[in-house]
Amino acid sequence: MKILVLNAGSSSLKYSLLEMVQTKVLIAGLLDRIGETGSVHRYQLANEQPQQVAVNIENHQQALQALFQLLTASQVLTDQRELACIGHRVVHGGEHFSQPTLITADVLSQLNATIPLAPLHNPANLLGIREAMQQMADIPQIAVFDTAFHQSLPDYAYRYALPGDLYTDHSVRRYGFHGTSHRYVAKLAAEFLAKPLAETNLITLHLGNGASVAAIANGRSVDTSMGMTPLEGLMMGSRSGDIDPAIVFYLSRTLDMSNADIENLLNKASGCKGVCGENDMRRIHALAESGSAEAKLALAMYAYRIKKYIGAYFAVLNRVDALVFTGGIGENDHWLRAACCENLSILGISLDTSKNLNPARPVADISSTDSKPAILVINTNEELEIALQAQACVAKQNAA
């Protein structure tokens, strides 16, 4: 059984083709700079070296055509009918979508209604879906939502302290993101701990250029740091995370900044980039080691914000079986993991310095023997999680 996972951005198309029986990635790649000068196709076939090819791709229709030409030429897919389904990453599902969903005309209409909630992401996701449905009308198309895992939040966690009609009439609430990653590592953590997921309490830290924390009680998300948008919560690569909302009014009044300027500032010019001019954590470490005070401050702020959420989510959960680090930074930055766990003995957290330097893959326990919660490093795999959810959705449809 083969499943194609697609993640369409405004000028990109990321994909993975998976063979589900052996859980093997046959090919993964990215068509980038669609509609721009210098379009490029980066891809890697299983057990081969990465490739990069200059292409002329004017739109997503041509991107999908180029993708299927490559799949055929490389013989990982000889006929579209080999696909059990196509799983589409959709950033925002609003309150309506809490499960992977077979895409129909009615579902597309409902997804259109979510665009105001994620104007930077959902239009591109929908563009990819529509093009895929046109070119592969006979293949089931499944939407898998970043927000779905967090639909189990209780109302006191997802509601903002705002007038009720902003929620009931305009859907203003916490939704949370990175749900496929939080769900995936939660399952692996429970398996590693030899506990049923439904009896496992976790704090999962997805740390990349975008970053979020989730409090997971008995396998279900009960709180998460990102909010109505991915801007709230932790300090990130170029996003501010939590700030005083009145700063927006101050910037507007004193600097005469427009809403668009402020939105761009908070999403693309803040976070680590705003503090030290860089959003690549490897570069920030290099700058800090060379003596940059701004880079040292960015690292200290980044770790400090994470520690505050760890403490808060201990209070939410009461019992924590494991603290889980994942995402590009969480999986690879030993300094940050140590900094996040430093001086948290009051919570029973104790890191093994030696284990932390070189954790095993895909799951490693880096806690010391006296640590009450385990401290785990788990390689996330959002594409596999999307494929698994899409597979389950198709099976459910076929059984109905």
TrEMBL record:
Transmembrane segments: none
InterPro entries found in the cross-reference section: Ac/propionate_kinase, Aliphatic_acid_kin_short-chain, Aliphatic_acid_kinase_CS, ATPase_NBD
Record-listed ATP binding positions: K14, H206, L207, G208, N209, G210, D280, M281, R282, G328, I329, G330, E331, N332
Cofactor: Mg(2+); Mn(2+)
Enzyme Commission no: 2.7.2.1
Primary location: cytoplasm
Binding partners and assembly: Homodimer.
DNA-binding listed as a keyword: no
Database matches in NCBIfam families: ackA
The protein's name: Acetate kinase
Enzyme type, top EC level: transferase
Function according to Swiss-Prot or TrEMBL: Catalyzes the formation of acetyl phosphate from acetate and ATP. Can also catalyze the reverse reaction.
Superkingdom of the organism of origin: Bacteria
GO molecular function terms attached to this record: acetate kinase activity; ATP binding; magnesium ion binding
Localization in the cell: Cytoplasm
Residues where substrate binds: R89
Pathway the protein contributes to: Metabolic intermediate biosynthesis; acetyl-CoA biosynthesis; acetyl-CoA from acetate: step 1/2
Transition state stabilizer, annotated site positions: H178, R239
Family to which the UniProt record says this protein belongs: Belongs to the acetokinase family.
